[in-house]
Each structure stands twice: as C-alpha cells, then as structure tokens.
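Instructor's aside before we start: the two examples that follow are unrelated to each other. I chose them only because their records fit on one page, so don't look for a connection. First example below.
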Amino acid sequence: MGTIDISYYNLFVGLLLLAIPFFYLWKFKTGLLKPAVIGTLRMIIQLFFIGIYLKYLFLWNNPWINFLWVIVMIFVAGQTALVRTGLKRRILLIPITVGFLCSVILVGLYFIGIVLQLDNIFSAQYFIPIFGILMGNMLSSNVIALNTYYSGLKREQQLYRYLLGNGATRQEAQAPFIKQAIIKSFSPLIAKGPYDVWGQWGVADDVICAGNEKSMQFLEDVLSEVIDLFPSEYIHVGGDECPKVRWEKCPKCQARIKAEGIKGDKKHSAEEYLQSYVISRMEKFVESKGRHIIGWDEILEGGLAPNATVMSWRGMDGGIEAAKQKHNVVMTPNTYVYLDYYQSADTDLEPEAIGGYLPLEKVYSFEPTAGISPEDQKYVIGAQANLWTEYIPTFSQVEYMIMPRIDAVADIQWSDPSKKDYQTFLPRVARMTQLYDRLGYNYGKHIFDINASLTTNTENGTLDIALTKLGEGDIYYTVDGSDPTIASIKYEGPVQINQDCEFKAIVVRPNGTSRIFSEDIFFNKATMKPITLKEQPSKGYVFNGAQVLVDGLRGGSNYKTGHWLGFQGKDLDATIDLKEPTEIQKVSFNTNVVKGDWIMGASAVTVKVSDDGKNFKEVASKKIPELTQNDKDGLYPQEISFAPVKARYVEIIINSSKLPKWHGGAGSPAFLFVDEIEIL
C-alpha cells in the first residue's frame, strides 16, 4: 500500500473551497467567522507538522518508535478525556490511561494480526493509522460515558446536599440512594423486568414477579430480617396498589396461574387470585415464625389468608367485609383519617397537600364500627390516622397537618359513640391549643375561623349564609369584595344573597382577627332553582346532592370540597325547573380533570327542553374531544349554544367516558366531575 502525493496547487485549490462557508459566515453576521478562521489556521499548522513527522516515521518504520508513538497518543488521549469532561481529580489520569492502553493495544493487535493477518504487524503504514482510529473512537466514547456518569453523580450530590440543608439527618439524606440500590439489586425479580427505578411519586405497573420462585425466596428473606429486627406480634406485608398489568403479560406469572389451577370468575380475575396466592404463602411463612400478618384492604381481593388482619383504607367497605369474614380490622379510611388532605376548602391559604378535603368536623364524624353488625363489631380492634409525607417537607408542617385533627382521632377511639358531640368537643380542642401554644407547636387554627353554612333556598331564590364562630368576638361582613373591618356590617343572623357578589367575613377578637372567609357567588337563570337527577352520584361524591350544581358556587381544583358531584360509569342527567317559561340560548358547565385519579372530562352534552316536565325535545347536542395524554389536569369549561327557545324545564345530559388507551386503567369507566351548570 503506497501513499498519495498531493501537489501544492491541488492543496491550495482545496483550501480555496473554504471561502464558501467563510463567505456565508460573514454575510449572515453569525459571529463565527473569526473562530472559524483561527480554527482552520490551527488545523493547517498542526496537520503540516504532523505530516512532516509521519513522513519520517513511515521512512524509519521502526517498531519501537511506532509503539512509543502509540503510547504517546494514549497518554494525550487520557489528558484530553479529563479536560473534555471537566474532571479536576488528576488521580483519574492513571486509571483512564491504563484503560485506554489495555483496550487499544489488545483490539489493535487483534485487528492487525488476526483480522488483516499482516506479516509485519508493526509496519508504520498500518500500525499508526489503525491505532489512531481506534484511539479517536475510544476517546469519544469514553468522554461521553464519563460525562454521563459524573453528571449523574453531581445531581445526586446536589440532592444529598439539598436534603441536608433542609434539616435531614445523614441517614435520611442517604435513604433515597440506598432505596435505589436495593431496587436495582432485585430488579430481575420484577415481572417482565428488569426496569428502571421509579423516579416519581405514584403507582407503578412494575411489580415483583409472582411466578418467579426466586421472588418468593426474596420476600421470605426480607420478612426474616424484619421479624428479627422487630418483636411485634404483627408483621405488615403491604399488599396495596398492586397493578396486575405486568402479571397479565408475564409468562412466568401466567405459568404460575396455570400450575396452581388458579381461575378467574365474575368476582375476581385470575391475577387478583394470584395476589391472594402470594399473600397466603407469605402468611404461612410469617406464621411459621410465630407472628401474624397485617395488610391493606387490597389483600381481600381474591380471598383472604386465614389469620390476616385488614387495614381498611379505601373507605369503610373493606373493613366491613373483613369483619363479616371474622377477620380483625383496623379502620383507617382515607375519607375520614388521612391527615395529608387539606383541612380547609380555601387551599390558596394552605400549604401544598396531596389533595382531598378533610376538615376537623369530618374527622370527628368518623365512627369505626359504622355499618358493622353488633356481633361483628368486636373484630374492629382499632382505628388509625395516616399522614403520608410526599408533600410535607418539614416537621413543622407535619405538626400543622396533624394538630388538632389528631385530637378528634383520639376522641373517636376513647369516647362512647353515644356521647360524641362536636359542639362540646370544640371547647375542649380550644383549651388543647393553649397547650400547643405553650409548647411552641405549629398547628392548624381553623377552629377559630368562621364556620359558614351555605344553603340554597329554592323557594326564595337565594343563597342563605349562616355564620358561627368559636369563642369570643363579633362577626363582620361585606358583600362588595372589600375586606371587612369592625366598621363593616355586623352579622346578626343569616344573610340572603340574590345576586352576584363577593361575600367576605371575619371575627374580630380582643387579641386580633380571624382569617377572612370569602366566597364568590354567581347568579344565572338556573341558580337556586329546583333540580333533580335521574342517576345519583357515585358513593362518596354525593355531598349535598343535586343542588350543588346550581348553588351559585363554582368549584375549584379540589374535587373533594363538596362543590362537585362525581359520576363513574354513568352519565349526569339533570332536569332544572326554571319555575316559569324562560328564554334560553346557552348552557355551560365545568368539568374537573385529574387523570391520575381516573377523572376525565365529558364526552358529549345534550340539551332538551319541556313546558310540562314530561315531554322533552332536543334543542342541541355536541361531542366533546377526548383528552390526550399531554392535556393537563384542571378545570375544563364547556358550553353549548343554540337558537333562543322558551321553556320552563331544561334537561341537561352530560356523558361520561371510559379511560383512553394511553391511560393505566384503559377501558375502565372514568369518573366525571361536574359543577356549576349555568343557563343563559
């Protein structure tokens, strides 16, 4: 193989071609002309001297000089890698250079000696170019790898320092990284795995493989360590929020279902019975160690292990069912005792929470044995409040979320249900807050704010506002949106509102004022009119019934405050009595979308009118586009217009939908949350 001689003339012509990009860099004022010219000159000078050196290197063709030249290239590449990655630790130069040396020499000799089968593997015309190409490619790949590794390391370092800076101990700050390491270590045990570590809060489809016997051994190993560490009679096995998506597709899980003779039925799928199989196995193991299992109410799905205790968190139904089956129950329903929920409907004045709405009065209304027959109530061994801290970064906020709601939880468990009374409970809580003040606790002071009862008066067409307060002081209010003071209207009794207004009220006490109670009220032709529903809302989302839809109060983003009605698997079909023939031409409403909670928008709306409330005719209908995966959660206003028509009764049908293909619950009925139907 020879070399190609290029004349100076041809070289000059080739360089002239660079004038074309230089011209456009100048013409379009990119600011890159000077760096491009300097870079080109540097390249020409470097290539000139390298060319001269290589000319004599090829002429000498000395194996030792050739090999020494490769060693020099490797050393320069190591230095270059450190510079390009911005690494200042020179100690890394040695391992990087050694790595380059071993890999380049081995690959290069293999290629020249075995692949090309050259007689003289150290011939300069082959040795130098091939090793140079290998070195260049390896340098690029190693720079990318080092940048990726150390950028990830820097992010974790920043997170670690952030956690320390926000009051975490060293153990607490290290916990996320230890968790990732643990999950990575057993990722091969995940159904259809391995998968990356879950990087955000939520429920992942990736779960442990129930068909892999190594998974079962892993679970037993973990439980063994837990049992050795904790002397408790009960060992909690979790069991909640276990999607069956992976199990449905995992060959090992399906093989386990077949081998164990597991079959689905109308009540449960085969995969749900597979979960019961896993829980039963773990129960036998825990029982063999002289302990008993306890788990969340999902362990009821597919059948309950014989000696299991159930913690009912998805409402009361799971606990009621477990008690019927003569299993011990701990009642901990999210509807009453999840203290990570907002404790005020005015969420703008509250620290961020996971959502929901759980005021002190609602907590106090909790009765752990409600709905359970007297003979089965003995299986309810207690109640528990939960505080999950995904949205609670400080212990001060922990105090705020717990107190004084934890006082209500205590009263629930320690008091005779027949003697429970919220109005007598409140003064006791007020005295308890004096202790909180002395101890410097950060607690919720909502009990000292105004308590408002808003009632739709369909007879008078008004919203009746009744206000109460705890302790001394007088209430003052305004209806024009201004902040109330002691000079405002003094509250003497219920206030009747019959037009648009911004109602505000405060309690004025000797030691200061309460937080401002505020409510925006909007009137339209449907407001405060009688309304009926063909289908009642889903359990848990009935609140104050149909009248919520026309009470003049528009619901915010929190769908659990009582301003929204929720329907799952059925449409909203409401009939509004305008009391007299009225000309109308538009209907509007809001839907609340929280995709992670299976709450989607409406799929269609239809408007019908009638003069007698019996015979209706359709005046308008339209389909509503399906939400995409990229659409954000929040309020989605909808409206439908039509030619003016006069009628007394208006029927509005708002159609729900199924969860779309891109959703984790695809195909299941979605929730539809609607508020304030307005007729114009």
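Example two begins here.
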Amino acid sequence: MKKLLGLLAFMLATVSFAQTDQDIVKNAYFDQDFRVKYNDQYGDKANHIGNGGFKKKNIKGVKSRTEVGTTLGLNDEAGLNASLLYKHEVFGEFENGKRNHFLQATDLVDGNLSKDIKWGDLDTTTKLGVRHWTNKEGKRHTKTNGESNEIYFGPTFGMNVLGQNIKTTLEAVYFGQRQSGNQDNRYYRNGNDGARNGWGANLSLGTDGKLLDNNFGTISYDVTLDHFLRDASGKNNKSNVRLDYTVGVAYDTPSFAGFYAFVRPENEWSKHTATDGYENEFTVWTGFGYKKEFDTSVGTITVNPSVRYSPVNKLTDKGEYWNNGSEKKTTVENNELRATPAARKLAQQMGLDLFLVKGSGANGRVHKEDVETFKFEKHVRISPLARKIALDHNIELENVVGSGHNGKIMRDDILKLIAKPQETEDLARHEKAVVAEEKAVAQQDIEIVPMTAMRKVISKRMTESYLTAPTFALNYEIDMTEAIALRKKILDTILESTGKKITITDIISFAVIKTLLKHKFVNSSLSEDGTQIILHNYVNLAIAVGFDGGLLVPVVKGADKMTLSELVVESKKIVKKALDMKLTPDEQSGSTFTISNLGMFGVQSFNPIINQPNSAILGVSSTVEKPVVVNGEITVRPMMTLTLTIDHRVVDGLAGAKFMQDLKNALENPIALLI
C-alpha cells in the first residue's frame, strides 16, 4: 500500500509540476518494451539459439528471461521533465516446450524530475530521482527476499559533434538494501548481513549517432561506459566498483503507418572490483515496434511500444566468485556449445549444464570424457597430472587439501594419499617389503623380522589355498564411464540419508551381489571331504582389508537382502571394525564370495588367491584412461581390469566367463541395478 501511495503522490506531483509554468505540456510519451531471451541448453542445436528450445525433446533444456518495461514521461515547454519507469523481469525454465516454473523475478520502479538547460552547444540536464528494486522468488513470486533503494542526483552534459551525440553523466547516490537484494548487480556483499547502506556515485560516458538514414532505413550505433561506485557500510560488506561497457549497432526498417522492424547486435562486458573475473555477453535482438505522434490541445502524445526477442545470446563468465562469504567457486566459459552426442546424452542423464564444461576437442568441442572429468572434479582446483593420478587410483577429491596456489591440488598431494594406509589387502605392501628386502640383500644389509601370529595364519591359509585348489583366472576390461557417473549422481543423496560416502567399490560390490544370485556355482563352496558342492541361495560378501599388521577378511552377512544405501553403511561399519581390530569370530566367517581391491595402489591387474572355502574371488584393479573403439571411433575411456580367480574343482571356465560377462554388463549399465 505504501508503494502505491508513493506512486500516486509522484503522479500528482508531475501534473502540478507540468502546470507550474502555466505552459502547455510540450510532449507526453509512452514507451512499452517487451523482451524475451531463451537459452537452449540441451537440444541438438544447443548454442543459445532460442528456437531450439521449443523442441519437446529438450527436457528441462530451456531457460528464459522475460522483461517488460513501461515508461511514462512529460516534457514541459520550459525544459522541465518528469519520468516514471516500471520494469518487471522474470527468470524461468521451460520443460517440453512449456513453462515449468518461475525461479526469480525483479521489479524496478524509477521516478525522476529533471531540468534542461542549454549553454551554447552544451546541453545540460540535472536530474533528481528515486529507484526501488524488489527481488521475489517462488512459483508465483509471492516471497520477497530482498529490496534496494537509491536516491540519486546529478547532471548530464551533452553535445553534438558532426551529428554524433556525446554524453557524460555524474550522479551522487545514497543507497539502502535489506536481505539478499543485490539488484541490478551494482552492489556486492560478502556475508549474510540483513541490511546495509552507504554512499556512491554513477559515472557514465557515452556516444551515439546515425551512420545511415535514408529510404532504406536507419543504421545507428551507441557506446556506453558505465561505472557504478558503492561504498557500503558493515563489516562483511565490500565496497565495489562495477564496470559495465556496452556497444551496440541497430538497423531500423523504414516506417509503414508507424510500424517498423529492427535488429540490434550488442556486446556487454562487466566486472566487479570486489571479485575476480568478468562477464561478457553477446546478444542479437530482433523485433518490431510502433511509433506514432498525436497532436492534441495540450501537446504532443508519443506512443512507442516495441517487442524484442533474442535469437542469439552467448555468455562468457570467467573467474572466482564468493558465495555467501564462505564458499569459493570457479565458473568457466559459457560460450556457443559444441559437444558430441555422447556428451549431450551423458550430461542430460546427470542433470548437468553442458555450458559449464570446458571441451578438450577441436574448437572447444565437449567430449564425453570432459563431462566425466567435470563431474569428477566437482569444481575442485587441481593440476592436470594430479587429476589423472586421482582418476587412475579412484581417489575422492572432496576432502583433499591442496598445497598449491589458492588451495590447488598438486601431484604430491595425491601421491601422499596413495602412500597412506587404505582399506585394502596387504598384498601390495608385502610386495614392497619383498622388493626392499631384495635390495637390502644386494647391499649385504639384512634385517630379520619374525612373523607375527597373524602373519603365520595368513601364510598358512594362502599356502593351503594355493596348493589345494587348482585355480583358473579370467580377466575382463570394464568401461567404468557409467559407473563413475552413477556414483557422482547419487553421492549427495546417499550421503544425506546415511552420512556415508558411496565409493566405486560399493557399486562394484552391489553389482557382484546381484550377479552372484544368477550364478550359484560361483557363489558356492566345496565340502570338507571334497565330495559335495554347496550352493548358496544367499550372499555373504567378504571384503579383504589390509593394514600394516596383516590381513583381515570381514564378512557382510545377508548382503543380497540389502539396498545400495544399506550396503554402503554396513560395509563401512564392518571395515572400520576390522581396522580397529574389534571383529568377532562370527564376523570373519561364513563368507560365500570375496572381493579384493588394489586399485588405489595403481595395480592394473593381479590374480588374487581364493579365500577358502569360497570357490571364487574377484580382484579389482585401478581405473586407467585408455583409447578404445566405440561405435567405430577411437575415444578415451576410464577402463578397469577385473580378475576372477575360480576353484576349477567347483567352477568351470564357461561358468566363470558367463558370470564375468553379466558382471561387465551390470557395471557398464549400472542404472539397471537400481530398478
């Protein structure tokens, strides 16, 4: 109600203002501008061409920006002017060609009074005005989450040189803001202060003019350099200078009964001194308008409504920006999108905006591997070599502290993690110890270490298994592209519900469990007398856990009855008990199948020894990027080698091969596991 009363008071003031000089109104004008931008994110022509967004196959593929502006103005014969601007701007999304929901809306009301004075060739306009922004969100824009107000005063100097207009504006500004306004990008706030105010200034330099004006139409140009200076109060509020440079060229067709069409390419570059980076936006506006003047007894009334549509809108957004004063995130180039069909499909499955992914192909073309890498990094600053090593060893980067500039993760940071004790079999450490021992022998510097009780048990069991069971090994290369993508997609959901992070090992374990239920001979054991094969209709999954003191194999009982989330919780629980040496004898017995993972040590292939009385064990190696042929094209994929060691007394090679074939299909199409 207060806003409406304020607007009414302003209109009454303008009427009295126009009559003070007892002159008739020189001109009254009405401008209506309707603008629409569409950003087509996922279509076959996903290059910010708006028409592509109306294709129904573009699921959640289109973002829209709609702006409606209305200006009312009065020009008095004595050079007194009054103007009232209202602008409503909406950001929304389209789904299947229909508007899905509104994300955010901003209302702007700008009222001002001005006086024109001409000094020779110099035109001067002094203006006093008030601006009010209201920021709203929600489906119907019912929630106000920020407001800003400005009172501004100052002159504009202009002159005409060879038909070109040159203008300079200098205004003093007092501003106030509450909640999360930040309207019009003039302010910058680092923190969550509920309100702030301060002084500032607006400095504008511009020129415009006509390059061509004849029967074929009008070609005009404009160049504007805007500087918005804001000195904000409050300990968490940063002073800011926003630089905003705009260059545009417009072509207007000849007018027919007041109707005309136009096209306007423009480029806008902006930067905040309170942040790093910049924004550069190239837009092509097309549209039509109507302009007509009506002479009346009180003056001339000008009507000029127009409709604008942006078929091209390219945005480059680079730099580091602060979010709520605590979380630093890095944006990347958002330009015309070039991407392979596989990259588009994977991005759509992930719900990922492809414009955020930096392509490694020719002319910035985005490949499927770029999408995988982007999701893997999750905006983590990391060197290319460190990223490759982390991918090869399935290292999760979320909690890695980088030693480089601005926390960038370097190669040595990843190598230190690889060298730390992991939840894995102690075989790799044993091999390192053997190498060290051989080196010591060569140097005739020997240290004899007696076997611990645990090591003696391990040695005995490994020897019995190796000598008793005739083994047969099957090696399969698995394309882990979809498995890695699935983990990243469900990581946050499972973390929120369980408090545990899902790993690639968890997904492999879940796939193994589901596959074992189809291949009972692989999920079996041999009786003590060797005369009977025991087929298990359940899965008790053993996980080999290695540490400096030895090797333990805890068992997840009833794994076949668990969901993926339950398996994540239970496996982490049992592994922790093993590392804390708190396993009970029951928690180390009764397994039907075993998994041994050495991938974090860079092992690319190994033949694990069967954990008897199981009839099989699966060895998991590291993920390595390799060139492979997909659909007749050579591409780079994250490949993992899985090795199945089987007891040939129980499992034939054909049965083992069928099991591995089904496991390969499950890991390369993991979404089917969740159905």
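The two ends are 54 Å apart (CA to CA).
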